[in-house]
Amino acid sequence: MNMTELSVLNEHFGIDDQLTFSEGPGGLAVVEIVNSLAVATIALQGAHLLSWIPRGEQPVIWLSRDARFKAGQSIRGGVPVCWPWFGPHATHPSYPAHGFARSVPWQVCETKTIEDGATFVAFRVMQTDATNVFWPHTSELELGIKVGATLELDLITRNTGPESITIGDALHTYFAVSDVRHIAVDGLDGCTYIDKLDSDKRKQQSGPVTFNAETDRIYLDASADCLINDAGMQRRIRIGKRGSRSTVVWNPWLEKAERMGDMGENGYLNMVCVESTNAADDVVTIAPGDEHHLWVSYQLETLA
Question: Which residues are catalytic?
């Protein structure tokens, strides 16, 4: 994006001393938000939130030191938007994993200041010839992000066509942790999960989720808050959600992280993905004229 385009965005959507558009890593355009409650950075490619730091706190969102910032390529870390399917495409394995939304440009459609001091920005993907190859349906996708002491994201799929559509989606959030080997994720006790590392066998979670090896699980009938308890950082991250009955928990561990090439040296130790999803049994059918919201909130709490 050139300087003229950035100037137009700042003229139409900038908020003095609070929200500005600039050139970020790799020449990608970013939104920078600075308010009394938090700071955040969002790339226009993928409407991809790269960072969120509440005032006086350490970063909550993990971004790889070796993340690649290139047009058309997904970014390792932050909050990638997976849409309109999760994982590999069911019938076209050559299609991009997790859909195309995370690697295409989004348009800014609204910015505003909230009464509590938070900042709101909304992005929209419109159908193009390129996206129609993967998704030949008439629909709109919008992401609203509220940056404050709590971070809220609302991913909205609108069916503007004459026939029902079925989607899978996710907010594939990478959370920053002190050491994944010494954290615990609560809120999934008793849930059935699909173990992606064991031939998709269905198992039952007992107690908190802990980590000592590669983990890739889809938890079903999981709509309660999840809590990332991190004694090393003396904090708890509370994950609330609506419009989702499945949760993915993922960490690649050492060997896979090294093969991936963009996790950074030992980066896997300082992140965990707890993803609010509509995946596996939890795909969503949207009737003509209807819409679906995948809404999440993230907030910090002191670990007692």
Answer: 172, 275
Domains in the chain, CATH or no CATH each: 3-302 (2.70.98.10)
Nearest by Cα to 69 from 161, 1, 144, 20: 1
pLDDT score recorded for residue 128: 86
Question: Alpha-carbon dihedral of residues 183, 255, 80, 95, nearest 10 degrees?
Answer: -150
DSSP string computed for 110-165 = EEEE-TTS-EEEEEEE---HHHHHH--S-EEEEEEEEESSSEEEEEEEEE-SSS-E
Distance, CA of 61 to CA of 236 (rounded, Å): 13
Looking at the predicted structure, is the pLDDT value of residue 75 above 80? yes
- Taking Cα atoms as reference points, which of 90, 57, 3 lies closest to residue 279? 90
- Distance (Å, whole) CA 276 – CA 51: 18
Helix (H, G, I), strand (E, B) or coil at 260: helix
In terms of C-beta density within 10 A (0-12 exposed, 13-18 middle, 19 or more buried), how is residue 167 classed? buried
* Residue 304 pLDDT level (bands cut at 50, 70, 90): confident
* pTM of this prediction exceeds 0.85: yes
Which among 111, 154, 106, 155 has a CA at the least distance from the CA of 12? 111
- DSSP class of residue 72 equals T
